[in-house]
Amino acid sequence: AVVSTQSVHYGRGLMCWDLKQMVYVKLSINNEYGASISDDIRQKILDWNSIDFKLYDHFYKKMKKIISEQDEDFHKEVAKLKQLNVDFSKECYEKVFPVYNGNKIGHSLRESHKDNMTCKTLTTDDVTQTHVIGLKQFKDKLPPSDILMVRNHMQNLKKHNPAMLDWSDVYKVLHPDESPNKSEL
Q1: Which of 75, 67, 86 is nearest to 26 (CA)?
Q2: Which tens digits make up the pLDDT trace of 106-161?
Q3: pLDDT tens across 8-34, in order?
Q4: Is the dihedral of CA 68, 105, 134, 91 positive or negative?
Q5: Which is it for the CA torsion 125, 127, 130, 131, positive or negative?
Q6: What torsion, rounded to 10 degrees, do the Cα atoms 85, 90, 95, 96 define?
Q7: Three-state DSSP class for 89?
Q8: Interatomic CA distance for residues 168 and 24, integer angstroms
Q9: Could you give phi then psi for residue 97, rounded to 5 degrees?
């Protein structure tokens, strides 16, 4: 996590993307939960996940080395990206608050941005976004129960993160030529 903004910026350069395309919103935070795990449990977790840990450690060290070899322009661009993130958050969100025992971050939209899909999408967690993509790709093949499950999932999360996409946003994507009636929302 120490090199997250630098990693995003490095990837941006490799993919030739514009800096504004790399703006992101932080949705989770590190907290003290890890500190409360006993050494014995910590070792068991490392043993169970030893391959994952080795992969992570390898690429973390590799990324730190790559970042340390970058020139001053790279680090100036990283600072610009950090500032873009701050500016974007100030523009979109009125309030940021901890949820789920402080492991996640919730956002509330500014009234002026309540319909801004970029602001909403960037505060929507990855699992929900994956569900939405799946709905879009397979909407004609999914049973109604699967669609209902995603809708309920989103409605439950929205209680904790009011800025995220809501079901009416998804409905508009799935049915661009229709206007939803209340029973479908």
Answers
A1: 86
A2: 889 999 999 999 999 988 888 888 988 988 898 889 888 988 988 998 988 888 88
A3: 889 888 899 998 888 988 887 665 555
A4: negative
A5: negative
A6: 10
A7: helix
A8: 23
A9: -150, 150
Decide: pTM greater than 0.85: no
Burial class, 8, CB count within 10 angstroms (exposed 0-12 / middle 13-18 / buried 19+): middle
The encoded tokens of residue 62 equal: 């590799």
The span from the CA of 185 to the CA of 109, in Å, is 21
Three-state helix/strand/coil letters over 59-70: HHHHHHHHHHCC
Phi, psi (degrees; rounded to nearest 5) at 70: -75, 155
Report the amino acid identity of residue 178. Answer: E
Q: What residue spans of 139-176 are helical by DSSP H?
A: 144-160, 167-174
- Angle, alpha carbons 62-105-55 (nearest 5°): 20
Long-range contacts of 7-12 (CB under 8 A, 24+ apart): 7/63, 7/67, 8/81, 9/74, 9/77, 9/78, 9/81, 10/63, 10/66, 10/67, 10/70, 10/74, 12/81
Closest by CA position to 120, among listed 112, 108, 132: 108
CA-CA distances (angstroms) from residue 80 to 8, 14, 25, 184? 12, 17, 15, 43
98's tokens:
């901890």
142: closest CA among 174, 185, 167?
A: 174
